[in-house]
Amino acid sequence: MAEADPLKLYNNKRDFTRTKEPAGKLGRSGGNGFIVQKHDATRLHFDFRLEMDGVLKSWAVTKGPSLDPADKRLAVRTEDHPLSYASFEGTIPKGEYGGGTVMLWDEGTWEPVPGKSAKDLEKGHLHFILHGQRMKGEWLLIRLKPRPGEKRENWLLRKIEDGYAGAADDLVSRELTSIRSGRTMGQIAADAPPISLKGKRGKSFDAAMMEAVKATPSRTPPRKRASGKPPAFRAPQLATLVDTVPTGNGWIHEIKYDGYRCLVSVAGKRVQIFTRTGLDWTNRFSSLAAEVAALDLPPALIDGEVVAMGPDGNPDFSTLQRVLKGEDRGALHLFAFDLLELAGEDLTALPTVARKERLSTLIGDGAAHIHFADHVVGAGEKLYNAMCGAGQEGIISKRADAPYRGARTRNWLKVKCTRRQEFVIAGWTPSGASGRALRNILLAQHGEDGLVYAGKVGTGFNARNSESLLQLLKARARKAPAVAVPRSESRGAQWVRPDLVAEIAFAEFTGDNVVRHGSFLGLREDKAAKEVRREKPMAAPEIESDITISNRDRLIFPEAKVTKGQLADYYAAAGAIMLPWIAHRPISLVRCPQGRAKKCFFQKHDSGSFGDHVKHIPIREKDGDEEDYLYIDDIDGLLACVQMGTIEFHGWGSRVEDVERPDRLIFDLDPDEGLDFEDVKKAAGDIRWTLEDIGLTSFPMLSGGKGVHVVVPLTPQAQWPQVKDFADRFSRALAAAEPDRFTATMSKAKRKGRIFIDWLRNQRGATAVLPYVVRARENAPVAVPVTWEELEDIESAGAFTIADVDQLIERANSRDLRGWGEARQTLPDY
Q1: CATH assignment of 419-531?
Q2: pLDDT-based confidence at 313, cuts 50/70/90?
Q3: Which of 241, 501, 588, 653 could form a disulfide with 604 if both were Cys (CB 3.0 to 4.6 A apart)?
Q4: Which letter, b or e, does each residue of 750-767 get, where b requires 16 or more Cβ atoms within 10 Å of its Cβ?
Q5: Which cofactors does this gene product need (predicted)?
């Protein structure tokens, strides 16, 4: 029997003379809202609430919602809350029930999946769909069987696999502000609009922050925004048709989307969308242009594909044709896969994976119909088989380290599941069948001496597409054929001006070079007839390095029996997952020509002995002189350094395009002797939450040594003095708050029993070890990005070694590490 007053327990737990929470009053039944509140009480958790029966049914989700369907998050049932609680955000006084900071983290509506009911909750199983700002798609709540003597009601909250599924940390680690007020947890705790670190860490922390603020030097002038004009169109890169998937980890592989290629030029609210030939189709793609405008992006030129989803939920060219003609109400989607320009900077010289990393950071989660096109490193055959099994067109394979070129190259390859090409329509034959006006279309392609006949196609037509096609053909009527057609093929043909381009699927070309078993898919309005030539599949190229590794058998890691050749093979294999972090960044090398146990030294300058694949950038030193620093932009650059005895690569916190504006902060946690890795992990977690309080997303990386790096990506805006000052103040404030645990001073004497928060990495000219770099330490450990969740179970900073290269590549392709180290964020103001 239902309790007479479902809010009695809620009201009994609270003293409304002390807390600003609303008093519990039963609301009207029939609503379907939901909210999620981030609640920093005794332990940080997320309160998930569903409107039902005039109240908010509530669960405390200990780690917050996960987008990974494999995660089953514990959700402890709590008392029903009043509907008015859906607008509560603020601080519950200390000592009161639930004392702490509360943020309105998400809101929207919910509904049971078709065939289910809200009454299923009483049975301990609720399958539902969320339409929130952050939580979307299908979810499941399942009640656990209580243990003997257990009073609380434990449930599991799980995401169902769908288009909104993602990685475990995609939501809780990235969405750090209120959906209602835009404030961070720190701002809410301080009850003030400006971002502040006050309010939660104790008097010593507050005092240290106040002293730091007083000592802060004047700011550098803000960076001038780029011109604000959308970039000009430029010719897109095109792929070469090959007959097999290229092998090796030097390739990345994407889905080949079945749609219209486009270039999106954007600057804030100004958006233009061009076809591959430069036609302005912004009006035709107006819904997508509006969504891109809503993202409020800096000036950028984005390469992608516009598609529409067919009945099976996959991209379908015929559906796209109908949507553009207004014959189908389906939505258009944009899959963005490359970034050519950003904020006035030409990115085409960057490696493919580095451009994609910038793109992922730029568009983030995108919008309802704007998506980042993911890729896998290696494993192309697996993706190809999956696409073919799903009835898709195929895949695109791209050299991971290649620059962008506005031409057809062999750095981009296309591997098709079925043969599809474009053909020029040269004529047609009428049908004598009832209800069908069009029997065949006659096809041609351009050859060396003009148009060449390519056969006829008589399938793929229906009442909708044949009528509109027939009108276009009749408008182009001509007396004589524009191409030589065999007499047997031309009986009854009507000839047309050859400027319509058709997309045709077919089984093969016959010995007479005409299509066999062809089917009409639609017209290609984005391609000029003069460009239509026969594509002949080529053999997939092998990536051959220009670098020869000498003395391959020399032992570099004696205890692990790892040779120089094996070290080079590691960097060749891992290069594609390293390049987003190391390419176009000033680097310093740890060179150990005789092996890690012998004399090693740092090197940041080069007189030219490394060869052409290791680049140089002049950087002004403190004394005003310029020195050439090293950087690389491809895998051969990595191997050239290994050939010269390099084991480790350490990078600046900025890129060569703008060395004065960092794109990351790094807090290197260096434990004193005697502290174990559990202490380091706890410290990293505490720094994570403190950063989140002020609105900064961070990511953990195993250093491969003793500690953990907490990496904070930044949009390159602040200059080095500002970044250094922030890192200094932040670290000293933490050390002042917990002096028995942390120190922000390098002195060995002050590190006794403490963890040194090394903030000095965040100054001009300082470097830090880069992701996937091998360390010159025993057993060849590797610096490895991890998620916050998996860090909890890792036992050492050297958990991965050079022997784990296949696992590291597989991890880099995983859903959990997608987007690691990427976020659009700037330093907060203090």
Answers
A1: 2.40.50.140
A2: confident
A3: 588
A4: ebeebbbbbbbbbbbebb
A5: Mn(2+)
Average pLDDT over residues 161-178: 88
Domain 243-416: CATH superfamily is: DNA ligase/mRNA capping enzyme (3.30.470.30)
Q: Give catalytic residue positions.
A: 256
* Position 209 confidence tier, pLDDT thresholds 50, 70, 90: very low
State residue 193's pLDDT score. Answer: 53
pLDDT, tens only, 269-282: 999 999 999 999 99
Do 26 and 103 contact (CB within 8 A), yes or no? Answer: no
Residue 42 pLDDT more than 70? Answer: yes
Give the pLDDT band of residue 158 (cuts 50, 70, 90).
Answer: very high
For the chain, state the CA radius of gyration.
Answer: 30
Task: Find out whether 747 and 736 touch, Cβ atoms under 8 Å.
Answer: no
**Structure tokens belonging to residue 105:** 């983290």
- CB-count exposure of residue 365 (10 Å: 0-12, 13-18, 19+): middle
CA distance 726 to 737: 17
Domain 555-812 has CATH 3.90.1140.10: no
Q: Which residues pair with 162 in a beta bridge?
A: none
**What per-residue confidence (pLDDT) applies to 435?**
66
Other CB atoms within 10 A of residue 452 CB: 18
Report residue 160 as tokens: 């169902």
What's the pLDDT score for residue 205?
47
Helix ranges (DSSP H) in 532-643: 564-582, 635-643
Please give the span between the terminal C-alpha atoms of the chain, in angstroms, as a whole number: 54
Measured between alpha carbons, how far is residue 614 from residues 267, 278, 659 in Å?
34, 36, 18
Nearest to 688 by CA among 597, 612, 787: 787
Asked whether the beta carbons of 423 and 496 are under 8 A apart, the reply is no
Confirm if 573 and 809 have CB atoms less than 8 A apart.
Answer: yes
Cβ partners under 8 Å of residue 119, min gap 6: none
Residue ranges per structural domain of the chain: 8-190, 243-416, 419-531, 555-812
**From residue 338, how far is each of 348, 372, 579, 626 by CA, in Å?**
10, 9, 15, 34
| Helices (runs of H) and strands (runs of E) counted in the chain | 15, 43
Nearest CA to 502 out of 422, 581, 441, 393 is that of 422
CB 503, CB 522: distance < 8 Å: yes
- The residue written with tokens 């005794």 in the block is 42
Q: What DSSP line would sit under 356-398, residue for residue?
A: HHHHHHHHTT-BTTEEE---EES-HHHHHHHHHHTT--EEEEE
Q: How many Å apart are CA 712 and CA 219, to the nearest integer?
A: 20
pLDDT in tens, 610-632: 999 999 999 998 878 899 999 99
Could you give the C-alpha distances from 559 to 110, 289, 551, 776, in angstroms and in order?
A: 58, 58, 18, 12
